[in-house]
Amino acid sequence: MRMIRDFANTFFLAELLKGLALTWKHMWAKKITLQYPEERTPMSPRFRGLHALRRYENGEERCIACKLCEAVCPALAITIEAGPRESDGSRRTTRYEIDLFKCIFCGFCEESCPVDSIVETRIFDYHFEHRGENIMTKAKLLAIGDEYETQIAADLKAQSEYR
Q: pLDDT tens for residues 46-60?
């Protein structure tokens, strides 16, 4: 009996007909298309995009050069060099770089930071036109943090119950 059923399925192309029926069913359904640059989909506050370095309210950078983010990075994308600050001798970063070609956007750096200095923003549409732009320096990261501080603070507050 099984051989007859298998022969009939093969002879009448049952798998092909099932596929065509599925195509026919979805052919008349309403299409959902976004016109990307003008329309955007909703994004979670926990989205992990481009990195940023934050500052305190008084303008001082938050990073204390503990190098936990560098140690926890599985892709070895973060490079930190520390040195004493001229004004009070406290340890701060002299070099903070993230290679975005290596980064896998796992969020471990954000989770390991004890002072919430390094965060991942919702920025996902960025590009590079010249060699070397993939290296996010300390100045670039601080500029992104300064520009998007209100959104970063709101996102951190929204996800505080999950942290």
A: 899 999 999 999 999
